[in-house]
Amino acid sequence: xxxxxxxxxxxxxxxxxxxxxxxxxxxxxxxxxxxxxxxxxxxxxxxxxxxxxxxxxxxxxxxxxxxxxxxxxxxxxxxxxxxxxxxxxxxxxxxxxxxxxxxxxxxxxxxxxxxxxxxxxxxxxxxxxxxxxxxxxxxxxxxxxxxxxxxxxxxxxxxxxxxxxxxxxxxxxxxxxxxxxxxxxxxxxxxxxxxxxxxxxxxxxxxxxxxxxxxxxxxxxxxxxxxxxxxxxxxxxxxxxxxxxxxxxxxxxxxxxxxxxxxxxxxxxxxxxxxxxxxxxxxxxxxxxxxxxxxxxxxxxxxxxxxxxx
Length: 310
Fold this sequence. Notes:
Blueprint lengths: L1 H16 L2 H17 L9 H11 L2 H17 L3 H17 L3 H17 L3 H18 L2 H17 L3 H18 L2 H17 L3 H15 L6 H14 L3 H18 L2 H17 L8 H12 L17
Helix pairs in contact: 1-2, 2-3, 2-4, 3-4, 4-5, 4-6, 5-6, 6-7, 6-8, 7-8, 8-9, 8-10, 9-10, 10-11, 10-12, 11-12, 12-13, 12-14, 13-14, 14-15
């Protein structure tokens, strides 16, 4: 929120001074901050930033804005648009001779492929990006690629490797001061704990994350869904359902359709695991979203096909 206030002041000053570079910079940072707190309806400055960078012939600026816009489209469930924006960002960085930043949109594409269940394609892109970032000593990139390689290992059932990679990623983000990404690593660690059937540890960690984040637009849907899984496996079905309902509310509020689909699926599995009828329309809505986003193989659900009781 302080970033938003600073950006608005910067926009006023840049407009008054006719300082185009600073204006574009403030525009794209403002959209980034607005999206991060879940105010997607107010984020409409990136196109103006992109136009200025094109006017100035600034390829690095274009790549940065396009990469952010791709991330916004990804979060909003417009994955075809996200892939197109990532491709343009990658091209702009490559034209600027910046292989380090060209790997950023490549990793963004890999994250979409991961969510779609296209794990081998995702892994290949991440390994390529990781080679570039290691050669450059780019700490953020190394940690980011390692995080997503850990997610792939967890999806493939290699929980020991997944845990090792997540520990490496967390340490990388911690050293760089990227607290938002350490929270992402911790959330993925909760997933691993669930599949290791270490339910009390999973619940304790996710509760600590929620206390720190307060259910943010970025991680809230995932964290409340993970909390629902842990509570269900510990036998508190009422609290599990409430956690999943909160996850769904936050996902809809943030227009995070892939998160909504995952939580709808979790509500269906919870009902069936408890011997109840799934919520009306939940299964059909989840399937429609999965099909639209091209998700061939959803992430495993700790409740699917498993009975639970209070």
